Amino acid sequence: MVAGTLTNNTTLNLGPSDHSLAANTTVTAAGLANTGTVNLFGNTGSPAIQATVTVNGQATNSGTVNLPTATSLTVSGTGNAYAQTAGPPV
Amino acid sequence: MMPNFTCSWNDATANRTTVADWSNCNGTDPNNGGGNTYDATIATGDPTLTTAITIGSVTITSPGAWTLSGSSASAVLTGTLANSGDLELHKKVSLRTGGNLTNSGALNLDTVHLEGGSSLATGGTLNNSTTIDVGLGDHSLTANSTVSAAALGQVGTINLDGVIGGAQAALKIATGPVTITSADDVGLHDNALFSLASGNLTNSGALNLDTGHPMAAAA
Fold first, then answer.
1. What is the ipTM of this complex?
2. What dihedral do alpha carbons B105, B144, B203, A23 form, nearest 10°?
3. Looking at the partner chain, which of B210, B214, B216 has a beta carbon nearest the beta carbon of A16?
4. Which of B11, B54, B100, B104 fits a disulfide with B84 by CB distance 3.0 to 4.6 angstroms?
């Protein structure tokens, strides 16, 4: 849990890349500024077990956010928005 | 002004209450009281702590070690703690500093099978240039184990290993900013928590949440 903004310039991994996540895994921050790569790996065999990023404020992405099965990126809060300026679509 | 003594451990591994194993210590073992205060230097051996003490600052240099073991072991440091040797906290112990904690050696909390419940609280800034391990990777942590600090300067390598559905390994920082640099590596595994209560977190290094973090991990 990050009370302020999470800035990621390199790689942030949630969950194992073999999609065998054993329990819900969450990153929560008041803001997100991503210029690197965020990889979320949930459990594809048990999609209820999720890797999630929750942003309670502004989120900007000029890097890459990978969201396969059993993952989510949620940007919440009044007036808050997700802005993507580069990278593949989320 | 109370007299202050800087005590040096001069033996191998023994209980720290062994008075003869301390040099320059006013004929006692270091534990504030009787109008005196004590600092401790450990450059050799391991003055194992199994009781409650209050002292000033502690300096551990390799090959020296300091082990706190058992639920009765509690150390309150009114000053700082500098460790370039080996600091070991096992089985429900408590260690709290009033000042900064600088770690450039080994620092382990409950890293033996079926241990847990220990806490390390830093009243100042935690600076880590080597590795801090909390819990063991075999999913055997028996109770929550926590490292906390008012601030986190140099991050270093920090491994948190909890138990899914069970005990949590946690790193709790009160005030940011915190920057994970390219030289740093933070890993959260199986019910681990990294929380930053205020301020921003910048990841320019490695931040990996592998499995099972029911709470927001520090991202």
1. 0.91
2. 130
3. B210
4. B104
